[in-house]
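ugh ok so i messed up the first submission bc i forgot one of the chains. this is the corrected input, ALL of the components this time, i swear. 533 residues overall. if the numbers dont match what u have on ur side tell me asap before i send this to the collaborators (the ones from the other lab, u know who)
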Amino acid sequence: MENKQSVETVIHDARKPLNHITMNAELLKIMVDKSISPEDIKKVAEQIIVSAKECSETMQQLLK
Amino acid sequence: MKSVLLVDDDLEFTDIACRIIEYLECEVFSAATLKEAKQWLDTQHFDHVLLDFMLPDGSGLHLLDHINVNGISTQVTMITGHPSVKNAIAQICSTEIGHLTKPIDADDLKQVLCNAGGNNLPNKNKTQSHALYFDCLIGESSTMKDMYRMIERVAQTDANIMLLGESGVGKEMVAQAIHNASKLSGQRVSVNCGAIPKDLIGSELFGHEKGAFTGANAQKKGVFELAQDGTLFLDELTEMPIEMQPNLLRVLETQTVTRVGGTKSIDVNCRVISATNRSVEEIAQNKVLREDIYFRLAVFPISIPPLRERKEDIALLAQYFLNDMNKQNKSSLALTDLDMALLMAHDWPGNIRELKHTIHRAFIMADLQENKLVFPASFDSPFSRATQAPANANPPPQILSPHAPVTPPPVNTRLSADTAVGTTIEELEKELIYKTLASVDGNKTNAAKILGISTKTLYNRLNSYEQTH
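and heres the new structure output, hopefully the right one now
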């Protein structure tokens, strides 16, 4: 039971950075369409990487 | 420029969403708590409020109360990051309140924020309790949203469209949606190709001149002419006799018709939407449609998903049908969580049509004292894909209700095994009531218990049967 709860918590916590990744990707699509500067686009890509790492770390908890 | 208030405590989400909203050319403000949101709303007008369901200092519903109590005029869309509460939110979100699930994509945001502008994007009909896309479609599932996008695109063109989908998925409604989105000056004309007698198909499609054949007492316009500058909906296209199909091909190619018995060519201009419940493979294998006709009419094929592939829409549709019946009958019956679980568990081989009839049946059988619908214990149908043990295929009436007596009633109480498609719900209901009554020697109190309805409801039903005979 306890194990199930911890899995649910991890899923809940992992969903947040995953949402950020998806929405940042949406933002990137718009930025490319609007010919926004490569520097700004790069910043969003970096945020995606940060969120992906955060998500990976959250899931790592399952193995502990 | 529209002003939007985004209320969410996830600051990173707020930051990204604000940027997307800005790119959609809206002015956007954000609040992380209910308190902040209230301050904004009390000092400034917002065209739209995007509201998270769970906030650190309360629920988003509290803000809805605040908006209602203070008479603040704004459009509200609820946001949730929890897919599990999506359906609950869909139910809570009534009349003018939409809902979105995270992650929100730019198209969804655009759709929500641009709705109120009354442009060609899916419209939310404010007189209904659910979002009606193109004034006639219901569904928030991703498969339906994909279809809405296709409809939006194709509506701007004059391409012929073929709708593919199982029986009961709502092909005619989708045709209406395309017609509505196309904003054509002409009307939508429907013809069921499977229902026209072989000999009359020419007259039906192309019209006839007076005296063209025995019985042609007056001139008649064909459906192509009637749909001038509008939409012609050819339902059950694959049921059209193959020998008649070359006539159809000729009209499609030349854009002209000649009435039966006439000599003059008449120019026609309409979009043809055809529909079939056969799959593309079946059409090709069984040669029910000429290849050239298929390519003419299926310039843009749209597959309408069966209800079992968009189960998240069941709640919305069920509630919509129930609201409609409540409105007609001035009642206020409601669906319980148990009812909803029952509806969600079924695979709906008859699709939306079956769901509508099931709600209708439950409405007829409703327990008015308890103010709730009465569904049968299972929705077995001869078409059900659910594999059932033969013993369960025809449940005897005594297990239809949780209040059923343990002792089995006398024989002759089973519902007719040959209940066929075409039997109306009313007929089945009547049979069920009389057989149940017979099983308890006419004791109405016991019969009502077995049926799971109030005695008053049973008396009402019996009275109505007597009045009709």
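quick check: The first helix of chain B runs from residue 11 to 23. that seems consistent at least. The CA atoms of residues 88 and 337 of chain B lie 10 Å apart.
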